[in-house]
Amino acid sequence: MSERIPVKNVTPVKVHRPDPSQHENAYTPRSRIYVRAVEGTMETIRRSFGLIFLGLFLLLPWLRYEGHQAILLDIGAQRFSIFGLTLWPQDLTLLAWIFIIAAFALFFITTFAGRVWCGFMCPQTTWTFIYIWFEEKIEGARNKRMKLDQRPMDFDKLWRKSLKHTAWVAVALLTALTFVGYFTPIDRLFIEFFTWQASFWAMFSVFFFTVCTYGNAGWMREIMCTHMCPYARFQSAMFDKDTFTVAYDPRRGEQRGPRSRKTTREQNQANGLGDCIDCNLCVQVCPTGIDIRNGLQYECINCGACVDACNGVMEKMDYPKGLISFTSEHQLAGGTTHIFRPKLAGYAVVLTIMVSLLVYEIAHRVPLEVDIIRDRNALYRETGDGLVENVYSLKILNKSQKPATYQIDVLGIEYVRLIGTLQVSVDGGEVFTQPLSVTVDPEVLTEKITTIQFHVHSIDGTDEVVESIEPSKFIYR
């Protein structure tokens, strides 16, 4: 302990406090993004996907299947009908499988092609572009909309703004009615809503989702993608150097700057200019307002609008297209993109296995469920003719969408006599409760508790026999 710890004099660190005068606008509200219209291949693909999924969303609840609404997620009745498949609370594992498969499919697509779900199929993106389309048709192009917002209120501005917001509310109301129509019969919903005869929860749900759609697509827009959607935050965990994303090629584009269209590309390169003319169109068409030339950013939704804008400029300048394109980090560095790689193959294998298991489980799903409830008032009783009687209640659930007739039998015990209706008819998607007494000669009972089985099977005369065997206990002494 004779050694002494050396002491060194350290000059104190000077703390540089921020100058408030230079940060007076640090917390100003966000600047409104005026999205410029663009035409091109990516925009055509995005619109096609949007129209397909929008059409499916609007059409599916109106489809009929065997006299019923094809898709009806009836939460009140705890029954989900999807065409010929009816899911009950007991079948929520199937629903969980579907969500897990959807998640892995999203991981697989993201690993391969980045956030194409966000850019081409996400409802937030689709409805945002629908609202922007109404803006363009009513208020004009990007520059006209900017000037319209800057000038004071007059009649022209008033009627344009009023018409735009009326169109937005109409789209939001139609969206809400259609969405709620997945959870309640949609044909009655439209009539009862506009005649004010719908239930409180139906009316509340329609108004709630109308406000949400109007606020999300009309006002919040990119805030949903950049601040509220968790997918934007964890997407980087699925990216690798071979993932296709929208990217700018700095080796070809830099140094950027304006130039005359009369000069050739070779002359500009000799003067140290790249292919980027710094027109900022890629920023103006971006729905989240980012500059793709700054590299990969979590705000980018891979919609490809900047690709179309840049390709249009390159075409006018007689330059090769692809300065901004769907490419990979390896390809940007001059290498080759590896399509088949272990990470992507792993997602594909897991996804294939889960889809196969789901299909198998649905294909072998028995559309019948039987629940046995013993009479709790008395374990058993002896009848006047010396027999032992146990009383049960059978809850027979017809999980199909067609009516069926079932026969009830008891297995596992000899010389049994059943008292009650042994053939019952149950409507599709209904639960039928059948009380049943089981009487047995005590001479054949060798134990106090005998295991028996209730056998319920269909007798509709079809080739496919639907049956369920449920165990229970017969008690004596």
From TrEMBL:
Spans traversing the lipid bilayer: 45-63, 94-114, 167-186, 198-217, 344-363
Limits of the 4Fe-4S ferredoxin-type domain: 266-295
PANTHER family (alphabetical): FERREDOXIN-TYPE PROTEIN NAPH
Name of the featured protein: Cytochrome c oxidase accessory protein CcoG
Gene3D superfamilies: Alpha-helical ferredoxin (1.10.1060.10), Immunoglobulins (2.60.40.10)
Cited InterPro entries: 4Fe4S_Fe-S-bd (IPR017896), 4Fe4S_Fe_S_CS (IPR017900), Cyt_c_oxidase_cbb3_FixG (IPR014116), Electron_Trans/Redox (IPR051684), FixG_C (IPR032879), Helical_ferredxn (IPR009051), Ig-like_fold (IPR013783)
Keywords: 4Fe-4S, Electron transport, Iron, Iron-sulfur, Membrane, Metal-binding, Transmembrane, Transmembrane helix, Transport
Metal-binding is among the record's keywords: yes
